[in-house]
């Protein structure tokens, strides 16, 4: 499979090159030259398949012969070494729990797959590289955990000072070894811009073999499509499937659209956001206006200029008319989110995290008009990750999974920096 840049100013590259480059030199985003499709027989038998086999079939269509079958099967099963349960919250409303991985957020899926792909190719060529990753909270933890101890790869995590939860900060500042944390005096968008600017500095990029682990990297997106197939396999007999995706940078939603393009029968995608609503606004008006991000209680979705929007556009052939049919957008404020966490817990004893609650809200709003659908929302993080928000809402302590509690005991190590490229260069030089 070859990958092209959405800006079309650079040549097509292999999968290996696309994931090591992260971002093409023309500041576009990589996309597969054709979106592969799966045969009808695959969808007829999918409910009898194991998660790892479904994931392998999907991955192999995007990677082709660059990773041999045996290695790719192992890579997929190492990535998904945890369950992805689907839990019925109310009649016809299902939570797809993506938080059973090591850092308790769905980003483990993408980060673990990316780490294993890079490590596979690095071992073939003994190539050294540096991963730069901007995080609004969960990415940094997942990438740090996914790459910890991986040979030939150093990781630098940039996170906005004071804008992520305590436990998230612990998760990305206490790993040590080949993982370094930068505490940036700015917002997530500043962190993301620092990373983007570093990639656009071609001299710097070449000198340190810079690679991106943000959801702009194709190796994050591909595995995020696996679980849409999985949800379909589990629920296909129940009716038309609609999926609500709580979204920030829109990697997860884009992965779902790719799955749909591959032939997966999902009837409707719903883009649910917090107050950072540039995509729902675009769907309504046809005008895309990136804004500075607003801080909310679903902080991993505080993104004012979502990178994957340009991939979504590509999927819909740049047609706003088509996109607004394929994706329905809703936005919610913090009061609605908090009230939903409280109400759902009270009515069902199911505890949503603030991100999942936004997804639940969008799903319910859509299902009011389409009551016969079978609805799934992605539950993207464990509620204990956002204990400081959720505990006051339900007025009860949340039990912390052991793997999260471990992080809280360790000592934070981070370098505080301003939002300039010079600061980042200083860190790279010291490595
Ligand atoms: C990153 C994140 C999101 C948003 O995912 P995108 O792919 O950036 O849209 C939602 N929920 C949680 C918990 C996250 O960490």
From TrEMBL:
Top-level class of the enzyme under EC nomenclature: lyase
Stretches assigned to coiled coil: none
UniProt entry keywords in alphabetical sequence: Amino-acid biosynthesis, Lyase, Pyridoxal phosphate, Threonine biosynthesis
Cofactors required: pyridoxal 5'-phosphate
Cross-referenced InterPro entries: Ser/Thr_deHydtase_PyrdxlP-BS, Thr_synth_N, Thr_synth_N_sf, Thr_synthase-like, Threonine_Synthase, TrpB-like_PALP, TrpB-like_PALP_sf
Keyword Lyase: yes
Catalytic activity: O-phospho-L-homoserine + H2O = L-threonine + phosphate
Gene3D superfamilies: 3.40.50.1100, Threonine synthase, N-terminal domain
Associated pathway: Amino-acid biosynthesis; L-threonine biosynthesis; L-threonine from L-aspartate: step 5/5
GO MF annotation list: threonine synthase activity
This enzyme's EC code(s): 4.2.3.1
Taxonomic superkingdom: Bacteria
Tryptophan synthase beta chain-like PALP domain span: 91-373
Keyword Amino-acid biosynthesis attributed: yes
Sequence similarity: Belongs to the threonine synthase family.
Family annotation (NCBIfam families): thrC
Name used for this protein in its record: Threonine synthase
Originating species: Reichenbachiella agarivorans
Encoding gene per record: thrC
């Amino acid at each position: 499979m070859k990958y092209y840049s959405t800006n079309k100013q650079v040549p097509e590259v292999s999968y290996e090159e696309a994931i090591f480059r992260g971002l093409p030199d023309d500041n576009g985003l990589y996309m597969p030259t054709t979106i592969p499709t799966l045969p009808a027989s695959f969808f007829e038998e999918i409910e009898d398949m194991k998660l790892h086999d479904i994931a392998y079939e999907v991955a192999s269509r995007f990677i082709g012969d660059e990773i041999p079958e045996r290695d790719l099967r192992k890579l997929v099963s190492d990535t998904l070494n945890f369950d992805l349960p689907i839990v019925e919250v109310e009649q016809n409303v299902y939570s797809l729990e993506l938080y059973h991985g090591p850092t308790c957020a769905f980003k483990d899926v993408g980060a673990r797959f990316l780490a294993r792909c890079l490590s596979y190719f690095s071992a073939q060529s003994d190539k050294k590289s540096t991963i730069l990753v901007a995080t609004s909270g969960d990415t940094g933890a997942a990438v740090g955990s996914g790459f910890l101890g991986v040979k030939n790869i150093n990781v630098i995590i940039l996170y906005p000072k004071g804008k992520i939860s305590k436990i998230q900060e612990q998760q990305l500042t206490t790993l040590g070894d080949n993982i370094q944390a930068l505490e940036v005096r700015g917002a997530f968008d500043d962190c993301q811009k620092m990373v983007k600017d570093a990639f656009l500095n071609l001299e710097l990029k070449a000198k340190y073999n810079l690679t991106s682990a943000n959801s702009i990297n194709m190796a994050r997106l591909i595995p995020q499509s696996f679980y849409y197939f999985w949800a379909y396999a589990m629920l296909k007999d129940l009716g038309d499937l609609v999926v609500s995706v709580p979204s920030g940078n829109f990697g997860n939603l884009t992965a779902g659209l790719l799955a749909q393009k591959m032939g997966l029968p999902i009837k409707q995608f719903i883009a649910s956001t917090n107050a950072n609503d540039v995509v729902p606004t675009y769907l309504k008006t046809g005008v895309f206006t990136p804004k500075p991000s607003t801080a909310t209680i679903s902080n991993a979705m505080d993104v004012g200029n979502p990178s994957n929007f340009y991939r979504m556009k590509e999927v819909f052939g740049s047609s706003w008319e088509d996109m607004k049919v394929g994706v329905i957008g809703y936005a919610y404020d913090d009061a609605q989110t908090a009230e939903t966490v409280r109400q759902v817990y009270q009515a069902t004893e199911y505890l949503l995290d603030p991100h999942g609650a936004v997804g639940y809200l969008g799903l319910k709003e859509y299902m009011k008009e389409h009551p016969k659908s079978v609805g799934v929302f992605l539950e993207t993080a464990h509620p204990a990750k956002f204990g400081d928000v959720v505990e006051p809402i339900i007025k009860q302590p949340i039990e912390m999974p052991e793997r999260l509690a471990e992080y809280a005991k360790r000592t934070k190590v981070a370098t505080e920096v301003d939002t300039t490229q010079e600061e980042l260069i200083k860190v790279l030089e010291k490595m």
